[in-house]
Design brief:
10 helices; 7-stranded mixed beta sheet; two-stranded antiparallel ribbon; alpha/beta; single chain
Length: 308
């Protein structure tokens, strides 16, 4: 089967079209925006078969465990999936415009986050493409003691990033292009962590490089490729490791922050045994969140077939 790497799926739409959508949201309000969003998402859904098929495969796998039965109307469920993504994009714009949606964080998660920040050790935060992490990033702007650097692949989302900067007039998060990481970059990241900062990286997409290290791990009933890079980086940085998620529950977002591991004393001989078990724990964490919020995992590419 011939597949397309997720990083080669170019961002769809023109900057002018996206700017019009943002203008409607910011100047006319949420209801007019939602009325326009429906036809836009329907057009995208009908005209782009690759994301549509990828969504259908994912929902066929996840829905029985979530709802107790297979999707009864796969096309309508797929449209709901795409609509959730469109809404998440606008929530990002709201967040960086200083109008973030309501956010809640449980007392235990807040306590863990406070402890991690005040401890002064910094750390690596594992995230995924589930939910809306830009909400967390925007909220972090209000907390001067929470210094975050994001490792991201941004080359296929440059239009939206330019739109975000133009529309909001605000500086975005501190981003390092993940495909450009060098030994010098790794040293800079280590210095940031030693100074009490945090490095955020998604661990649910395979590397852009064809020779990037991956492992096929059980995920939603079938082995899927996951990158070793985030976990090798965690071992290299020798620091506390956390997980972070930001999921929409009704009208509000819920932030969850938990300790995952600590590689401070992980010696080189133990690393090769640590990688697979740490990766499987991450995959199990991701699968559990997908089952609870299946329409918020925004990986619209052939996930299980990548690098076949």
């Amino acid at each position: 089967m011939t597949t397309t790497h997720w990083a080669h799926i170019q961002e769809r739409g023109t900057l002018a079209g996206m700017h019009a959508m943002v203008w409607i949201r910011r100047h006319l309000g949420r209801l007019p925006f939602r009325l326009v969003l429906g036809p836009v998402v329907l057009y995208y859904y009908l005209s782009h078969p690759l994301p549509r098929r990828a969504s259908r495969e994912y929902l066929a796998r996840i829905w029985p465990g979530h709802a107790g039965h297979p999707p009864r109307h796969p096309r309508l469920l797929g449209l709901r999936h795409f609509m959730a993504f469109g809404q998440a994009l606008m929530d990002k714009v709201d967040a960086w415009s200083g109008l973030p949606p309501a956010v809640c964080i449980a007392p235990e998660d807040q306590a863990r986050l406070d402890t991690a920040i005040r401890g002064g050790r910094g750390g690596l935060i594992l995230v995924s493409h589930l939910g809306n992490l830009e909400i967390c990033s925007a909220l972090g702007q209000r907390r001067p003691d929470f210094h975050v650097t994001q490792l991201m692949h941004t080359r296929n989302s440059r239009k939206f990033n330019r739109l975000l900067a133009r529309s909001t007039g605000r500086q975005g998060p501190d981003i390092v292009e993940v495909s450009d990481i060098s030994p010098a970059t790794a040293m800079q990241l280590a210095a940031r962590i030693q100074a009490g900062g945090f490095v955020v990286i998604a661990a649910d997409r395979i590397p852009l490089a064809e020779r990037g290290r991956t492992r096929r791990l059980p995920f939603l009933g079938r082995p899927a490729p996951f990158p070793e890079g985030p976990f090798r980086l965690a071992a290299l940085l020798r620091c506390p490791v956390y997980t972070l998620s930001c999921l929409r529950e009704g009208p509000a977002y819920r932030i969850a922050f938990s300790a995952f591991d600590d590689t401070t004393r992980l010696d080189r001989r133990a690393r090769e045994a640590w990688y697979p078990q740490a990766m499987q724990r991450y995959v199990d964490w991701l699968a559990a969140q997908c089952r609870q919020h299946p329409l918020q995992w925004f990986n619209f590419f052939p996930f299980w077939h990548a690098h076949d």
